[in-house]
Design a protein that fits this description.
Rossmann fold, 4-stranded parallel β-sheet, 4 strands
Length: about 230
């Protein structure tokens, strides 16, 4: 049995559900419970496992997802126990598009954010820099970065490189077929999309760039946003 756990991660609205759908179509076993049902924001489903949100207090569910793929918001990656091995597909997307999509989602849910987009964008960018630096230093985690725009524009190439990354025999054609370009509804006029990114960076201490108190405040603001969106 393959003990490695594959995780699709990133910020909410970065394309994680699309990637989960591709992997399922390709033949991978996805760990989902369908408690959160498909809706207008994710008409093909959220591909979530509710227990993932409780990983800080209980990670026993990891025993049941070995050899499978599970979706996890990037803020929770820090909680993964170092005693296991992970393949992480980290979705990237223009921050402006992410914020616009999150704003639309909050409005549909009847919620609102107490933080404006400019400040939230800075918080998200800082978090992404920190989590990427942290991931680069984790010897039990193989990380593959994929830009959502590239998934939409060239799904075949993305499917092929992911298949290589996972050392799987995935069905490339079915992975390509599941990508629905019409769902790319929030597009940035100033898109600065990078290609698929692989490799490692020099590991840095994620606490070096900010004071601990400020960092904790930032973390609380981000987590409040994720809770409002239903991801934590």
């Amino acid at each position: 049995m393959n003990d490695v756990i594959t995780i699709v991660s990133g910020l909410p609205r970065s394309g994680t559900s699309v990637m989960m759908g591709m992997l399922e179509a390709g033949g991978m076993d996805v760990a989902v419970d369908n408690i959160r049902e498909a809706d207008e924001d994710n008409p093909k489903g959220y591909y979530e496992l509710e227990k993932v949100k409780d990983i800080k207090s209980d990670y026993s569910w990891l025993d049941n997802v070995q050899g499978k793929v599970v979706k996890m918001v990037s803020m929770l990656l820090y909680e993964l126990p170092s005693t296991r091995d992970y393949n992480i597909i980290f979705m990237q997307r223009d921050i402006g598009e992410i914020l616009a999509s999150q704003r639309t989602m909050l409005q549909r849910k009847g919620n609102r954010s107490d933080i404006n987009d400019e400040e939230m964008g800075k918080l998200f960018n800082r978090h992404l820099e920190e989590i990427e630096n942290w991931l680069a230093g984790q010897k039990n985690m193989r990380v593959f970065y994929v830009n959502y725009k590239n998934v939409i524009e060239d799904p075949r190439n993305i499917a092929q490189v992911i298949n290589h990354f996972l050392n799987e025999t995935l069905n490339i054609e079915k992975m390509v077929e599941t990508v629905d370009r019409s769902l790319y509804r929030q597009r940035s006029a100033l898109m600065k999309a990078s290609d698929v990114i692989t490799g490692t960076k020099e590991s840095k201490n994620p606490l070096e760039s900010v004071e601990s108190v400020e960092k904790e405040n930032d973390k609380e603001k981000i987590e409040a946003q994720l809770r409002a969106l239903g991801y934590m």
